[in-house]
């Protein structure tokens, strides 16, 4: 396959960036999108140019490191992560636009790499349970109803890639934050910190400069793990419940 | 707690949802009242007079009306202030646009902000036209709303402004009602279809109900 790539190039966080055009040849339809970028980078290095910087780690769709907006879609045209997107999803001769996640809470570090540590700080605000760690407890010691376990697991699937923020017209982190809150708040282990968790995580999310929710639904469409839009509704419900309780105290 | 609510994006959305539902409830009553125009001037003017005597003798003359007006002004101001502040935040959170643009959200969703501005301006004109009579075409007669309505819809601009505003209202409710349900945590997977249908139905019924009055005047059904 022969392709034309238009890639966002930005030397440093404080430098101006622009789209640069590259032609790549000899691309196999079985290559992943990242392997195609590897091919481009090898050529750039041979020519003595600066290779395109992009985030990647596991390359098997479970770590959430890869983060490219391809032709205006976070993670590209398929419902998966960029690393699991293959070149067969494109046609020979296509022009492909590759851009970084766009949100003021995710500043560009270089080229296609953005700083997603705002997500880490949201997790630090309450995305955990305070319990003594040690040997793993007996699995059946705490009974969890099956529907609750399923609900928790569905939200635990979130890999924190930030595609929801990238896709959101308001740069909001509602889907990510709701996934993390719902995952723990429904489980007995998460119950003691149920109220503080949702209040603190939402406050942190706001402080990081993410936008508000207008229920455009773009986040859930972009999510490679299929976290549903109704997850945000569940978070709203948890938040209102916690705010009411905090008001009584 | 009030501080917590107003400081949070979720709290501001809650304020918008509650104030929006208050205004929506008012609009349903307002639209049904408007339809009385099809029963002639006596019944329409009589209804308008009854609104002023509503609640008597417990309430003084026009008090029920003024209580409603105050509640509505509070709702409008809260709704618009929260919308303005949230919009500012949203634009700040996403300063850089994508070079490769894609539009997916529905038309109703994308027009919430400007549609809201249109509705705000319309409310001002609507009050100056048919409540105070300041901008009313022809002689405004207090206590004769039937004639005043006909005067307004006998002008081309009266019809245009009203029709544009009512269409904007329909779109606003279509996304707004469903969104309010999500914000208040009332949505769920099983209820989603019912909520969307209710939103569309409310939007449609209100649009048709409000539009029927200028159309009736234009076609001479009401004269």
List keywords for this structure.
heterodimer; A: alpha+beta; Ubiquitin-like (UB roll); five-stranded mixed sheet; B: 223 residues; mainly alpha; 3 helical TM bundles of succinate and fumarate reductases; 9 helices; 73% helix
Polypeptide structure, described:
- The complex is a heterodimer of chains A (about 250) and B (about 220).
- Chain A is an alpha+beta fold and about 250 residues long.
- Chain A folds into two domains: about 5-110, Ubiquitin-like (UB roll) (Roll); about 115-130 and about 140-249, Fumarate Reductase Iron-sulfur Protein, Chain B, domain 2 (Orthogonal Bundle), CATH 1.10.1060.10.
- Chain A has helices at about 35-45, 115-125, 145-155, 165, 175-185, 195-205, 220, 230-249, and strands at about 5-10, 15-25, 70, 75, 95-100, 110, 115.
- Chain A has a five-stranded mixed beta sheet.
- Chain B is mainly alpha-helical and about 220 residues long.
- In chain B, about 75% of the residues lie in helices and about 0% in strands.
- Chain B is built from nine helices and no strands.
- Chain B has helices spanning about 1-5, 10-35, 40-55, 65-95, 105-110, 110-130, 145-150, 155-185, 190-220.
- The model of chain B has no long low-confidence stretch (mean pLDDT about 95).
- The chains are: A alpha+beta (about 250), B mainly alpha (about 220).
- Chains A and B meet through helix 6 and helix 8 of A and helix 1, helix 2, helix 4 and helix 8 of B.
Brief digest:
Chain A has 249 residues and is an alpha+beta fold.
Query: Which percent band covers the strand fraction of chain A?
Result: 5-15%
Radius of gyration of chain B: 19 Å
Q: How do the SSEs of chain B run, as a string of H and E?
A: HHHHHHHHH
- What is the general shape of chain A? elongated
Indicate the CATH class of chain B: Mainly Alpha
* CATH architectural designation of the largest domain in chain A: Orthogonal Bundle
Overall 3D shape of chain B: globular
Mean pLDDT score of chain A: 96
Please name the CATH topology of chain B.
3 helical TM bundles of succinate and fumarate reductases
Please give the alpha-carbon distance between the first and last residues of chain A. Answer: 65 Å
CATH architecture of chain B: Up-down Bundle
Order of H and E elements of chain A:
EEHEEEEEHHHHHHH
Give the name of the CATH superfamily of the largest domain in chain A. Answer: Alpha-helical ferredoxin
């Amino acid at each position: 396959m022969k392709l034309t790539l238009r890639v966002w190039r930005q030397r440093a966080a404080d430098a101006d960036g622009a789209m640069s055009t590259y032609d790549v040849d000899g691309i196999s339809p079985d290559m992943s999108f990242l392997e195609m970028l590897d091919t481009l980078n090898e050529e750039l290095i041979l020519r003595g140019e600066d290779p395109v910087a992009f985030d990647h780690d596991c390359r098997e769709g479970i770590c959430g490191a890869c983060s490219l907006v391809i032709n205006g879609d976070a993670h590209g045209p398929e419902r998966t992560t960029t690393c699991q997107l293959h070149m067969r999803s494109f046609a020979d001769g296509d022009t492909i636009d590759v851009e970084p996640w766009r949100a003021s809470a995710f500043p560009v570090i270089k080229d296609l790499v953005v700083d997603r540590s705002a997500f880490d700080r949201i997790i630090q605000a309450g995305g955990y349970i305070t319990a003594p760690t040690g040997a793993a407890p007996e699995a059946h010691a705490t009974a969890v109803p099956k529907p609750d376990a399923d609900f928790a697991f569905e939200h635990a699937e979130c890999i924190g890639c930030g595609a929801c923020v990238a896709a959101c017209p308001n740069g909001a982190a509602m889907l990510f934050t709701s996934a993390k809150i719902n995952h723990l708040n429904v489980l007995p282990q998460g119950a003691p910190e149920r109220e503080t968790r949702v209040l603190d995580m939402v406050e942190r999310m706001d402080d990081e400069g993410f936008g508000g929710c207008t229920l455009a639904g773009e986040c859930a469409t972009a999510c490679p793990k299929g976290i549903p839009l109704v997850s945000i509704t569940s978070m709203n419900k948890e938040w209102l419940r916690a705010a009411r309780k905090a008001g009584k105290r | 707690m009030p501080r917590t609510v107003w400081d949070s994006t979720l709290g501001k959305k809650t304020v918008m949802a509650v104030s929006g539902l208050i205004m929506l409830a008012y609009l349903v009553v307002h639209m049904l009242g408007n339809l009385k125009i099809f029963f002639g001037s006596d019944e329409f003017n009589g209804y308008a007079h009854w609104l002023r005597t509503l609640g008597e003798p417990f309430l003084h003359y026009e008090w029920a009306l003024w209580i409603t007006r105050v509640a509505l002004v509070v709702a409008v101001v809260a709704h618009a202030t929260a919308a303005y502040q949230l919009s500012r935040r949203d634009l700040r959170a996403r300063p850089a646009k994508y070079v490769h643009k894609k539009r997916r959200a529905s038309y109703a969703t994308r027009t919430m902000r400007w549609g809201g501005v249109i509705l705000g301006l319309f409310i001002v004109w609507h009050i100056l036209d048919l409540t105070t009579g300041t901008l009313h075409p022809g002689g405004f007669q207090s206590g004769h709303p039937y004639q005043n309505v006909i005067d307004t819809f006998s002008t081309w601009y009266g019809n245009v402004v009203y029709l544009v505003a009512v269409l904007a209202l329909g779109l606003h409710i279509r996304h707004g009602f469903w969104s309010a349900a999500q914000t208040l945590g009332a949505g769920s997977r099983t209820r989603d279809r019912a909520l969307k249908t209710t939103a569309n139905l409310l939007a449609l019924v209100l649009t048709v109900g409000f539009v029927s009055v200028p159309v009736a005047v234009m076609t001479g059904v009401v004269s």
